[in-house]
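Data availability excerpt. The first of two example chains:
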Amino acid sequence: MLKLLRRLLILTAVILFVCVGSILNTGWARYRRAIEEMPLKTAVDAVRASRNYVPFDQIDRDYVNAVVAVEDKRFFSRSGFDYAALVRAMINNFRQGKAIEGGSTIPQQTAKNLYFIGRGKTRGVPEKVAEVFLMYDMEEQYTKQDILALYAALNYYGDGYWGLDHASRGYYGVPSSDLTIAQSAMLAGIPNAPSVYQLSSGYDLALSRQRRVLSNMRREGYLSEEDYQEALNEDVHARSGEESSDALLQ
């Protein structure tokens, strides 16, 4: 019986090894094809030349803290793949019986938006593996500040707003450098599911998501209790359509 069990364990290990090897191989091939079609520098330069892009120093620091707190807590201190975040997400999802969080880092999400999201593009397991390889390239060639600016510019914030500055002006009538804590937390939460959280139709759900972002910011030490309570009480409804249109023209 023990001999049979040992053989089954060895067979399972071999199958697992072959499957993982196959997944890595197909992911590597997808990564190579992606950068051959568009080198990383070309892709990044195209984003930087777009109207949606603003450099890191023009992004409100509260937004930066909000994104890091909710999406990638060790973003500025970690390099490479975040295995701890992946394991934590798997445990939390198992406990809840559904997918409530992912293990993707900010660089992985940036790679996804840079290469694998858009009209006519498909994203499966090979693409997800390719994103990890692209993440390492990105972290080698660009600073964390560069990557976060790309992340902010590439995200969709619902209601037709692409990029943080576009959303900031459209929703709140201010540039991305002048957001309040509450507004920053709101916008940091929307890209998780833009069609669900866009403010025109999903304000209540977006507000619930914002509360989670603010709680994370408080827990990670980005907010004092006073600032946290003040942000909870701030009205973060979007401006009227006419006000938003005027702000976008400025």
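And the second chain:
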Amino acid sequence: MTNYLGLTEDDGSAAPAPTRALNPVVKTPAPSARSPKLSVAPVVESQPAMDRIVTITPRFYSEARAIGEYYREGNPVIMNLSDMEESERKRLIDFASGLVFGHAGTIERVTSKVFLLTPPNVIVSGEEKSAAAQASFFNQS
């Protein structure tokens, strides 16, 4: 027993200790003739109603959380980064790119400092993009 626990040196003369299986095999019972047959119905996920496009004009990187929360709820988000410093603007764009990639959405540049984050279940037409660009264009200082 002391050899098995590693408390003494093994001289090699003893038979190796039996090893246990790491993954036990679990047997499932065979279906009986009396068991009811189950039919599988397709699961339909209800999509949240997208009733708005959220526009956020952050001043600091710490406001990235709000962008992420709106986006995860399924809302398209317009980020107007015109009030941010260059270094924080780059960090926020990196954050938004990762957020969009992780949720299989898209990110598009509307103007030089305005970006549109679109969830995968939403399609934004060209007219809506140009309207968003014009609305954010007038808000830039």
